[in-house]
Amino acid sequence: MASDSRWPVQCHLHPSATFTVSPIADTGSFLDVTFVSSIGSSASYTVDAGASSASLTIANVDVAPVLPVVSIASSDPSISEDSASPATFTVTRDGTSGDLAVTLTFSGDAVSGTDFSVSPSEVFDNGLITILDGQSSATFTVSPIANTGSFLDVSFVSSIGSSASYTIDAGASSASLTIANVDVAPVLPVISIASSDASVNEDSASPATFTVTRDGTSGDLAVTLTFSGNAVSGTDFSVSPSEVFDNGLITILDGQSSATFTVSPIADT
Description:
Distance between the termini: 106 Å
Radius of gyration: 41 Å
Largest sheet: 5 strands, mixed
Helix content: under 10%
Structural class: mainly beta
Number of strands: 18
Strand order of the largest sheet: 7-9-5-3-11
Strand content: 35-45%
Order of helices and strands: EEEEEEEHEEEEEEEEEHEE
C-alpha cells in the first residue's frame, strides 16, 4: 500500500488526532507486507526527528501451497533400432490430487519420423503430458524406427520444463534413450588407376592404356575421373572411349575388377 503525502491531519484544539489502518485478508500472497506513515514538512510545525514516521507490518496468515515435485525416467537406457518393444518414459509426481499438466522438452540427435515415433503423438507435438487426478504418474512411449540410411547410434532426450504448478526433481529432471544402430556399414571397394606407359612419343602408333581397378567384382561401379596436365585434347591427344574424357566417368561392369581407356598421342608440328 502506497502512502500519500497529500493527506493532511488537522489537530484543531486537541493535542493529537488518529486514523486507523484495517488489514484485508487475501489469498494471492504468502508474504508479510508493511505500511509506513511519515510526517511531511510544514511551516506550521517542526517534526520530531525521533518519531517522524510509524510503520505497521501486516502479517500473512495463509499457508503457501506445497508444490508437487516432478521427475522423469526411462524404462530403458538403450534399445536397438529394430526392437519391437518401445521404451516407456514415466513422469511422476509426489501426491495424486488434481490434474497436473507437465511441460516437456525434447532434444538429442534422433529425428522424429526417421529414428523414432512417440505415443501418444500429442505429447511430442505439444510438449505436454497430464497426470490425471488420483494418479501419481503418466507415461509415453518411444518406438525406434529401423533405417538403412545411417550406421550410427542416435539419442533421444526428454526433459521437464519449468512451471509455477510444480518443482522439478533436480536429480531426475531429464531421461535419455540411446537408439542403437544394428546395420553393418558396407565395406567400400578400394579404387586405383595406373598407366601402361610412363611416356610415349607423339608420333607413336601405340596408345597408352589407363586401367582403373577395384578390389572385388560385385555390381556395376561408376568411377569418377578428373583430368589435368598441359596436354590439350584434340591437339596433343585423344581418349577412347571419348565418353570417358567427355563425362569424366568410367564404369567397371558387374563381374569385372577393372575397366580401361586409352590415350593416343597426336603428332603436331
